[in-house]
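Q: Could you write out the predicted structure for this multi-component system? I'm mainly interested in how the pieces pack against one another.
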Amino acid sequence: MKKLKTMICILVLSIGLVGNTFAGDSVNAGITGIFNNIVTTIMSVVGGSDDCPVRDCSNCKPGDNNTGNCRPTDK
Amino acid sequence: MKYKISRKTISNKVGYQLIGIFWLLFLSGFDLPVLSQESEYLAVPESYKTEGIPTIKNSEIEGLFYDPASIRSNLIWDADRKNRRMLVTDVTNHVYLLDSPMATPTKLIEKIVPNSVKVSPNGDSFVYTSDQEDQDNYQLYQYNFKENASKKLVTLTGKDESINTFVWSKNGDSLFFVRVDYESKTTRLCRFNFSIENCYPEQLKGVWDIIQAGETKILLKYWKASSSQLVYAYDLSKNKLIPIDEKGNSRKSFMTEDSVFWTSEGNERCKQEPCVLSFNFKTSTTNLIKLPSEIVNLYDIKVSPNGKNLLLQETKDGIDKLRVFRIKNQAIAREIQSFVKGSYVVWNTRWLSDKEVIYTIENIGKPASIQSFDIKTKKLTDWTKESLPPRLENKVKSPELIRWKSFDQKEITGYIVRPNSEVKKTPVLIFVHGGPQILDRPVFNSQDIRLASNLNLAVIHTNIRGSSGFGKEFIDADNKENRGDAVKDMQALLNWIETQPNLDANQIYLRGESYGGFVVLATALQEPKRLKGVIAEYPLISIRGYLGQSWIDEFAKNEYGDPKDEALMTKLDKLSPLNNTKDWNKIPLFMTRGKLDARIPEKDVIDLKNQLQKNDTEMWFIYSTENGHGFGGNYVFASMYQFLKKQVKKEK
């Protein structure tokens, strides 16, 4: 009985002490979810230019990880 | 986007053991202690492969990010004149509907970022171009307001085809657009009436844009070179191309029922430059439009729908001024009072009606917001109001315009953003824009603010030769064999920094994106001692490699040169660190590359990375398997921040 209590105690302590690490995986989605939505907002450069065709000098492709560095072109 | 936990946060072995214990306890009904919910490290996106980038502790980048809801910045996609409303962006560049002034914008399109958005004249839908299916190959999509859904309109047929631009017909019953075939280097003008597509017989050589559709004519632009944008009209009934201006550089143009108006630089009819010319189809005569004498830096020109008012946008030193004039007897008459008060960068002006103008304003400390001005009632209306996270407030000084003389005495300009808490000698980060035919203007820039406030860096934005906004001669000054002169502009800037008492010439870092990446790499090759770190985001590495791609058109060759000109290619090869790593003085390099980047050859990027790694250069490299040209985001910014922080610390 004493052995069983000790084992349970060790198990509980193990969970408690390594909780942060263990929880890291399961709640990481939550953490990254926040980062996923945080936008880094606007950089200085216009995404497109009225002085070149779209394939030659636009670089407005924020993708999923939006940087928001685009300004709509006037085209 | 999916993320994975950083490898160092948990050892797999320990993790599996703990999962087992967890389940054992869970099944036996134990009450578990409350576990901490925080990961110690910043997650690396699953689609990223990184090299040389240390694990980033969240505590190290604490001051870098903020709640997305705390920032508001809106710009105009397009106006819906029929319903007096507009389509707007936010910081994510998605499409939102803004129904009325200060209403909450409704998100219509997410996950994709259109290149161009245009509302139908009857206000029931909008059409946009997107390359979501294939990078740089744009297709047409229509969003119907009633159905709240998008559908693709026409399909691409060529091997490397793109619908770069489109316009609505006057009554909204059809679309006119250009199919650019990058394989044959030709453009076709087409019309789609929402059931059948018809392309006109004339095959246009090179890359063309469509500007406007009239009843019988279409206004077109031929992209010969950035300093040679030529205006043509296409007569729909005669299937005939009418040259309007084949001499001057025509950046902006519009058409009324019987005439074309355009800005021109280099046309012999211009008495001052740029000027505005008109061409009458009936009389086939070209006239010079007399502009108010004080207008010298004309950036844009837009006529109201009824043709009675003209909106002019002037740009000087990056700051814009909007002016509206009455038009009488085909001439510019009296001016209506000016309405934009303060120093702002203005984007995407539109006529919301015959008497109402909409526009966005922003500057370095103010995110973009949208206003309208009623020229009859003189009423100014806010459509959106910007907001800024408290941690970004009052962190930087107002940007200062800077000028320096290059090796040939050409004046080069830029602007500097200094941290509010400036020390005796402030380290400097120099930013070089892509393009190169782009003008870097002092817009709201949260990255500058965060770098300045967290690392105490001064950020210099450059408009070296080749940038737009300074005339034909300047935009052409870096062409072909003169590419190295743009690098010399950068070296001259380093000289200028050395003369500045508050800037630390021993701590200069470079950052460039796309073409700007090429410039910063080339500058570092020429400056083995004066630079302490380089950031090249999705950079162009080798002009030879770039010009070797099948899609390269006349426009690109006019900018960079003929790839068959071996003497020129050899000269340009010497600018790039690729195959010249013996001259690279181990300056630490941060570089990114997107697998889907169809603009720049991947081989060049990987080769350079490998060569510099062999050279024992400190290399921080991010490769994204899901992104293309122009990618960024929080992980990239956090890594870049760590890179700069490390280099700055090293030099202290």
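A: Regarding packing and overall arrangement: The longest strand of chain B covers residues 503-513.
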